[in-house]
From TrEMBL, chains A, B:
InterPro entries for the chain: HTH_MarR-typ, MarR/SlyA-like, WH-like_DNA-bd_sf, WH_DNA-bd_sf
Protein name: MarR family transcriptional regulator
Pfam families named among the record's database cross-references: MarR_2
Residue stretches spanning the membrane: none
Coiled coil: none
Domain HTH marR-type: 12-148
A GO biological-process term: response to stress
Taxonomy, superkingdom: Bacteria
PROSITE patterns in UniProt: HTH_MARR_2 (PS50995)
SUPFAM superfamilies: Winged helix' DNA-binding domain (SSF46785)
Length: 153, 153
DNA sequence: CCGGTTTGGTTGAGCGTTCAACTAAACCGC
DNA sequence: GCGGTTTAGTTGAACGCTCAACCAAACCGG
């Protein structure tokens, strides 16, 4: 059967391209800043953040992947690098022998603490300083709706 | 001098993480769909789109990079691949002997035409179907503001 | 015009991500 | 408790991106 494509009208077109351009520019900028100032990509920063917030600064690999919005494979490679940098340690799970626990080292915590102020400043400058309080609220609602929709289906 | 970090309050924190999660999930999903159904990453799709919209389906490399939101280096590598696939041809610039013109081949146009319906459907399903018309409008304004702010400074 | 600077574009190395294949352990129904 | 199925995690190859170095042509001030 012939399924008609629901093409985008010109308003939608414009919205989609604007979103594409803006989110790419924002992420590229923040990623580049983080790489330059802290020597780590944003994805690694986020792994460290999630670990730092976990009880005892430890998380099971799958939970960490979930929290950091990463695939298992990606996390596996990333933790290998972070471990080589001395920022994360791998430990065995006490009861599930398949499990691995990623644990943030003191050096990892220090690296995060050094990177955080500059990065947060970047987020503020490039995102929040540009938007009105109402827009910030709108962006939150839109984002939460999208995530719900994407992970729900 | 000691510069105080302007940390994010909990509302901002929530907004930032929601945006991060949503935009990453959206892009990952669309990229994966495009790779699966059309055998090309989203960045390559966008190059083909911009070429297809240009007069005579030709653009100078720098203009194409600008239009596709890509670095020169990235575009150079990408066009090399697209040329190997037979989707794009490189031609010499008539007056500026440094210049290169990227030209969309018929095969490239056909590949784009085959990929477009599925991708557009994905954009509609994952983005527009989830948002109210008002939210679409908000997202456009927010995105345009952000882009202006990012490229202006 | 001549030499320095800017612009256009490419190149290769290094890195991070993806995908598919794989191992090992836990779970589950009978 | 045995055999099939999930679940947890790793691995290596292929690929795309970034960064810095680079070449060549155009531009520009004196």
């Amino acid at each position: 059967m012939a399924v008609m494509t629901r093409w985008l009208d010109s308003d939608e077109q414009r919205t989609w391209r604007a979103f594409l351009t803006a989110s790419r520019a924002l992420m590229d900028t923040l990623d580049r800043e983080l790489q330059r100032d802290a020597g780590m990509p944003h994805a690694y920063y986020e792994i460290l953040v999630r670990l730092s917030e976990a009880p005892d600064r430890r998380l099971r690999m799958s939970d960490l992947a979930e929290a950091a919005g990463s695939s298992r494979s990606r996390l596996s490679h990333a933790v290998a690098r972070l471990e080589a940098a001395g920022w994360v340690r791998r430990e065995e799970h006490p009861t599930d022998r398949r499990g691995q626990i990623a644990s943030l080292t003191d050096a990892g915590f220090a690296a995060l603490a050094a990177a955080a102020p500059g990065h947060v400043e970047g987020v503020r400058r490039h995102l929040f300083d540009a938007l009105s309080p109402a827009q910030v609220d709108q962006l939150r609602r839109i984002s939460e709706t999208l995530t719900e929709h994407l992970t729900g289906s």
